[in-house]
User: Fold this.
Amino acid sequence: MTCTDVVLVGAGLASQRCAETLRARGFDGPIRMIGAEPHAPYDRPPLSKEFLGEAAPPPLLRPHGWHAEHGVDLLLGDAAVALEDRRVRLASGAAVPFGKLLVATGARARTLPGLPDALTLRSVDDAHDLRERLRPGARLAIVGAGFVGMEVAATALHLGVEVTVFEMGPAPLGRVLGPRVGSWFADLHRARGVELRLGTGFDGKGDHDAVLTAVGATPDTEWAGPDPWRRPDVFVAGDATGSQHWEAAARQGNDAARAMLGLPPLPPAIDSVWSDQHGIRIHVLGRPSGEPHVEESTTDRLVAWFAEGAVLANAPELLPAARKRLRQTETTQEIAA
Amino acid sequence: MSLNVHIDHDACLAHGDCAVVAPDVFVVDDVAKQVADAPDDVLIAAAQACPSVAIVLTDSETGEQVYP
Assistant:
């Protein structure tokens, strides 16, 4: 007897989108979604933003009842611990047989050896822990000036917290956006009152009420063994792939469902990331590498064009044109290739 | 002023923020859809919330683009 069950390991955006696409495309077999956390699929981007400022339930991706209504069996609070021949072993000891499997267990926050007790921010429970510390007047040290670090810095500052950010590199977001655009972000955060210490690690000095390490994340796929997706019945999507973007996870979830059903993948999309910092909406499109042409740079607005990317802050009206321009760049490259 | 709503389905990735801001006005399945009329300020708030800038608002009288 062949098992036709689809098992989605991970209860985040990628699994959720996979389930939705499977149902939308007419798959009517059993779907089981396994989550290590006790929560139904929720959205992570708000966790470093508005969610830190309000005591609220997890921002669910779909309302309660959606999964039962769509025949998606949720197994929550039980982590996958091993991929066996045709089944997934859970921490509780249960074995879940599968016909097709999605590995979408996301990523876990990196920690620093010198800071074993520092907070990290990946899950809604992490966000609750961090929120408890963000009292007005509290002092927060953030180690790492990537998107998560800078979003938390902005949110915490607006909650009345004194924020110091430590970054080894020369500029916040410098690794992703380069030093030129990074320096614009340094000015933005300093102007609003964030203390930014660049070119330095956390010195451990100062009387901080909390320390948050925000130095990236590593795919959480060890449980499945090395490269399990080489098997034709195993697929991967979301942060488990090593990419860490909302839109990539959504598309990969869709594509995994399509692959399971033998459908071709969706046409490739331009990479797209957004962020909110100090009330400013930031859009990053494509690959912002190399030296940018900075068309506009004021205290609260930035328009920077790269050969294969763009960074826009407080310039949503340019997004459609930016997408079009990058699509043309891609087409030109395809022709050149 | 009264606003026309156009949802760019190529840009919409079903983030769902519009439906959070204006749950009576937008529903999100594969893409966002407008299901009811709403005051201009509600439409503007929903359009501004969209991370993909997929909601385009135009003045229904002059045709002038109001957002983005």
